Amino acid sequence: MKIHLSAEVESSLVAGKPVLALESTIITHGMPHPDNVEFALRAEFICRQQGVVPATIAVIKGDCCVGLEKAQIESIAINPSTKKVSRRELGVAIEKRWSGGTTVSATMHIAHQSGVSVFSTGGIGGVHRGAERSFDVSQDLTALSQIPMVVVSAGAKAVLDIPKTLEALETLGVPVLGFETNEFPAFYSRNSGLCGLLRTESPGEIARVFQKNKDVGVSTSTLVVNPVPVKDEIPGSEIEKIVDEAIGVALENKIIGKDLTPFLLKEVVKKTGGRSLETNKALAINNVNLGIQIVKELS
């Protein structure tokens, strides 16, 4: 697989220095402009400030790029023709010379092929509500079951069926570690009521569990769930009603497939008066900070 590494990422990988993978769908489809650019540049700044090289991953004119220039980030953030590229569409994106934000599954695939072992995102995709009728299940779950790396998230996106997503992760054999919690977080909210996770207390412990998983031949990802900071959360009792309303709007407008999650997130932003956007930024930065500490332990 031909991958274009930035000079900064390539030299760091060769030297064994810590590199953290960051996705780009959060830039292209997860936040409005200019918030998306501000978030992406802030995440990269935080990485460098702590001695870690950020590897924001995207498809740029058919090239799988690991490490973006500021102009590339700005281009995919404002161009309305920018695609949402999942793992199964990488070959098409390369052949057709697309520019696109990479989903969790595509980012994981490219990162692993590049030798990057830790990835921080906002929230993973999973089992959609109503999946018993639509069979709408994210490719992120398949990628998590097949690609051995550490993935840090604030749980699954709140617009999903979180209990079914957690069950699917168990069925697929994906280890799920709670960072300073034994409860699966619900993206905007710290609590989901789904307890029983293995609680970890430090980035070093997470790194050691991941290494032990590799040592015994576990070929899945190690999913680390990191609750949104208390000061930034939207309580579940408040956000759940808003999510239900957004899903109703999506059903009325017959929004399905890969367009559904971005549509729902935008609806939730509208219905919360922008509060959910601020929470999204906060949880994603929180995951970047944890990812930084984990990759430093592994380096």
From TrEMBL:
The UniProt keywords, alphabetically, are: Glycosidase, Hydrolase, Lyase, Manganese, Metal-binding
Q: Name one GO molecular function term.
A: hydrolase activity, acting on glycosyl bonds
Q: Does the keyword Manganese apply?
A: yes
- Please give the SUPFAM superfamilies that the UniProt record associates with this protein: Indigoidine synthase A-like (SSF110581)
Question: Might you report a single GO cellular component term?
Answer: cytoplasm
Task: Kindly name one Pfam family recorded for this protein.
Answer: Indigoidine_A
The record's annotation in HAMAP family points to:
PsiMP_glycosidase (MF_01876)
Under which name does UniProt file this protein? Pseudouridine-5'-phosphate glycosidase
* UniProt source species: marine metagenome
Lineage per the UniProt record = unclassified sequences, metagenomes, ecological metagenomes
